[in-house]
């Protein structure tokens, strides 16, 4: 905060304390929620400061506020003041807290019992020997010169006490040279608020044109309700240090769519994307609220079948140093053919809105028009004009088999049969690595695919050349493409109700 004066002993002798209770304009509350379980809250508090010291209480904080993140300022930058002290209290009054505040005292406990069909109430005095509040232990109560664990009844407290609060609160000691009355802005970071995206993709009975509806789900577990707040959602992986667990008393220092305007608008912000709800919304404590943010129709998509016969899950890393010479390494057969769904997130494809990370659910309409669930997956943050590629499951009517036909291992360096001779002496020259055959592995596979569908399919057969980094395909029955340093892919076209095989031999050396 800007301060236009210096604190000195002369001025300090003229200070006097004033207690101020600040109010906030609820309609001005703004939230920026991150999908990493935290949010930034911006609130408005009306301050009426007197010259000197002012005690200010703000009782609209959350229960998971980070005290060191609090900023109290004059948004118009017209009034000079200084926050000398800030205290954060997140222990609202409760039965457990009042037991702790009355520890060592004797209070009444009301017990209820049934006698002859009637409810009898009686008060039993008991001394609170231990409340157990801070340690999480059972309370100990002394009644009739005997100790008991647990409460003998409902405690009746004489008063709240001066050291209790009803809601999580901030307390400031503010110093100002001259009186000032203005609306200040308080902002802070709070935990236990999050949002996530969910997408529902619906396909017709036949075909690959899909309809998409995207929702944002906001969840508030911060301990405070936000009435008619302006809400923004930040998408992206923001670097955030894990907050420490604070005690109960902590002091800190100062795209597509239908008619009308879309309910959520998007823009780039720094290295992230910011989604703004166009209407104020009330987000209550322990509430989940959903808002539609994307709706698109007739999005073109394609289905791709992938047979990765040497593994049981897609995208598994196969090369492991030290195992490449084991005869059975990488030869296990998987019969499943994976189903991938792909579509481009572009304006030409009726999308083009940066899609935040979230779950995608796939549905297809049956002959009677009802939607049936056909799979789900998760997408990462996807910019405009990028391809979305997701696994939806495995194909029921497509089966693959992978079999190792032969394996030849030579693990030692072998000299060549031709020996070089020194013409001057007639003696054999010393052999070198260049004059010998390096260690090698030759391995052959047969891969068979069967199509039990009533239509033709194209299957991409993926092979992981996992035994070494230097390799060459010596023989092959079909053409292939090199995907990366240790992955190749064979395209196969299978007619309806047909079977097709491919064979290849790979030569490794080192």
Can you give a write-up of this model?
- The chain has helices spanning 9-12, 95-101; strands at 17-21, 23-24, 30-34, 38-49, 52-58, 71-73, 82-89, 106-115, 118-130, 140-143, 146-149, 154-156, 169-176, 180-191, 193-203, 209-220, 226-235, 249-252, 264-269, 272-277, 281-283, 287-300, 302-307, 338-344, 358-365, 371-379, 387-394, 398-410, 414-415, 436-437, 440-451, 457-464, 471-476, 481-484, 487-494, 498-509.
- It is mostly beta strands and 510 residues long.
- The protein has 3 domains: 17-90 and 165-194 and 222-287, Immunoglobulin-like, CATH 2.60.40; 95-156, no CATH class; 303-352 and 387-509, no CATH class.
- Strands 2, 3, 4, 6, 14, 17, 19, 20 and 21 form a 9-stranded mixed β-sheet that branches. The protein has a 6-stranded mixed β-sheet with strand order 27-24-23-32-35-34, with no helix packed on it.
Q: Main attributes?
A:
510 residues; mainly beta; Immunoglobulin-like; nine-stranded mixed β-sheet; 2 helices; 2% helix
What's a quick, concise take on this entry?
With 510 residues, the chain is mainly β. It has helices at residues 9-12, 95-101; strands at 17-21, 23-24, 30-34, 38-49, 52-58, 71-73, 82-89, 106-115, 118-130, 140-143, 146-149, 154-156, 169-176, 180-191, 193-203, 209-220, 226-235, 249-252, 264-269, 272-277, 281-283, 287-300, 302-307, 338-344, 358-365, 371-379, 387-394, 398-410, 414-415, 436-437, 440-451, 457-464, 471-476, 481-484, 487-494, 498-509.
């Amino acid at each position: 905060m800007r301060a236009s004066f210096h604190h000195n002993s002369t001025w300090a002798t003229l200070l006097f304390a004033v207690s101020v209770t600040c109010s906030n304009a609820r309609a001005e509350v703004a939230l920026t929620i991150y999908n990493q379980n935290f949010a930034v809250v911006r609130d408005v508090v009306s301050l009426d400061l007197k010259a000197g010291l002012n005690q200010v209480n703000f009782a609209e904080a959350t229960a998971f506020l980070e005290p060191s993140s609090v900023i109290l300022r004059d948004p118009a930058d017209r009034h000079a003041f200084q926050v000398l002290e800030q205290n954060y209290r997140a222990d609202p009054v409760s039965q457990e807290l009042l037991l702790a505040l009355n520890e060592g005292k004797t209070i009444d406990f009301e017990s209820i019992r049934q006698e002859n069909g009637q409810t009898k109430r009686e008060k039993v005095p008991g001394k609170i020997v231990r409340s157990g509040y801070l340690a999480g232990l059972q309370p100990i109560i002394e009644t009739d010169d005997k100790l008991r664990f647990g409460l003998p009844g409902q405690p009746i407290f004489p008063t709240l006490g001066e050291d209790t609060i009803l809601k999580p609160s901030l307390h400031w000691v503010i110093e100002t040279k001259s009186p000032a009355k203005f609306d200040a802005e308080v902002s802070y970071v709070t935990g236990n608020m999050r949002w996530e995206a969910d997408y529902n993709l619906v396909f017709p009975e036949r075909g690959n044109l899909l309809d998409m509806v995207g929702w944002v789900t906001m969840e508030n577990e911060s301990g405070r309700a936000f009435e008619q707040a302006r809400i923004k959602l930040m998408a992206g992986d923001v670097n955030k240090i894990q907050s420490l667990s604070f005690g109960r008393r902590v002091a800190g220092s100062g795209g597509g769519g239908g008619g009308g305007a879309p309910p959520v608008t998007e823009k780039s912000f720094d290295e992230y994307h910011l989604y703004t709800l166009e209407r104020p919304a009330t987000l209550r404590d322990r509430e989940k609220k959903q808002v539609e943010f994307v709706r698109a129709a007739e999005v073109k998509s394609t289905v791709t079948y992938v047979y990765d016969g040497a593994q049981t899950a897609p995208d598994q890393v196969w090369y492991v140093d030290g195992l490449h010479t084991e005869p059975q390494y990488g030869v296990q057969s998987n019969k499943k053919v994976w189903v991938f769904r792909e579509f481009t997130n572009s304006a030409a494809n009726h999308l083009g809105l940066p899609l935040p990370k979230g779950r995608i659910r796939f549905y297809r309409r049956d002959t009677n028009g009802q939607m049936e669930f056909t799979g789900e997956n998760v997408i990462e943050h996807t910019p405009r004009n990028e391809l979305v590629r997701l696994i939806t499951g495995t194909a029921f009517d497509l089966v693959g088999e992978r079999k190792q036909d032969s394996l030849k291992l030579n693990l030692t360096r072998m000299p060549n049969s031709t020996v070089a001779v020194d013409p001057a002496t007639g003696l054999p020259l010393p052999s070198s690595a260049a004059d010998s055959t390096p260690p090698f592995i030759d391995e052959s596979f047969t891969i068979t695919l069967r199509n039990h569908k009533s239509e033709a399919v194209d299957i991409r057969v993926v092979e992981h050349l996992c035994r070494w980094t230097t390799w060459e395909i010596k023989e092959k029955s079909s053409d292939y493409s090199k995907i990366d340093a240790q992955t190749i892919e064979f395209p196969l076209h299978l007619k309806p109700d047909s079977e097709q095989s491919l064979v290849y031999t790979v030569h490794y050396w080192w």
